[in-house]
Amino acid sequence: MANSAVLQPGLQQPAWQMDRFIIATALAGFALLGGLIWLETAPFMVALFVIGTVLGMALYHGAFGFTAGWRNLVVKKRGASMRAQLMLFGLSSVIMVPMLYSGQAGLVGAVAPVGTSLVVGSFIFGLGMQLGGGCGSGTLFTVGAGNIRMVVTLVFFIAGTVLGSIHLPWWLDQPGFDPVPLVSTFGVSGAIVVQLFGLGLLARWVNRIERKAHGNLERDELLWKGQAHGVFRTLLSGRWPFTWAILILAAGNALTLAFSGAPWSITFAFNVWGAKALEAVGVNMSQFEFWTWEYPAMALKDSVLTNVPSVMNFGLLLGAMLAAGLANRFNEASRNRPDGRQFLASVVGGLLLGYGARLGFGCNIGALFSGIASASLHAWIWFACAFAGSLIGIRLRPWFRLPN
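^ thats the sequence. predicted structure below, dont judge the formating
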């Protein structure tokens, strides 16, 4: 399958190795699904499918995982990944807040209520991401790259979202208040400035932690520099500097908003997949209040190829698979089979991820990234509560034989 390593005369580096079978499989899947989406829907959905694919490649090649980034700050006192995340949030805020409040009809931001459901859900999600091994995007791109343990996490992630959808109406009846768009208080420019100030304070806190522990920052190495293979080879086979991933993820979210009318989200698709699976075995989902609401009911009734989060998720999976093939690392990921406790961590973590995502109105993408890009107060509360939950998850990881 994969090409063997060959040293070129006069060069110190081996020739570029690719897994041709995995690349061909990913491209075939892309062509097949893209064709079906074209026939089923409209060209803009094909564009979203392509955007999802590029986002999957960016997440994989940039190693842009929220879970490991948070853990590296807590355990290793290294903050390059956290700084990259904060830069991503800031750039997307500058781009997308003006888009959302430009007066263009049909654009809706990721704005959600603030209350018990948000606090409990985001905390549970943060705990689950450390046990499950990834957030929403992290789970998808590692599954696409062939990680066996993350397949288990994804299955139970989906199950958790369905359970959360059944319980969500009760949680929404608990204390809370309506969504708070920061633009309503500060205006468009003011909301952007307030968010950039908040992100700057967080970056200063991250830098202080790292400097206190190590005396320096790893920013220069990971933010701007990739492998010494040249731009073209690095672009296709990784490891990307964080800056490349930041630019593509920010552009991808903005394009998602422009094409679909809403920012990038991931976990609602898991809800739909799980509910459709239950209906296929005879469960009537309309007996549950959530699935009688207009948007969930429509998504459950329609083909998954007409559901924007589902289409983008399919693209993300194939993009990560293609990236792993180009980097010749798909087989490496597929050999990581979990032992008993690691399997249990995937089960428990997946359930917590799914349940928390539904209660907390999304994952690191839909609730946090897109929420801050929409200047919504709920995203900042989600960030704090999920990070607190992640601290507990990090402490629990050794019992499940997961390395920190």
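The radius of gyration is 21 Å.
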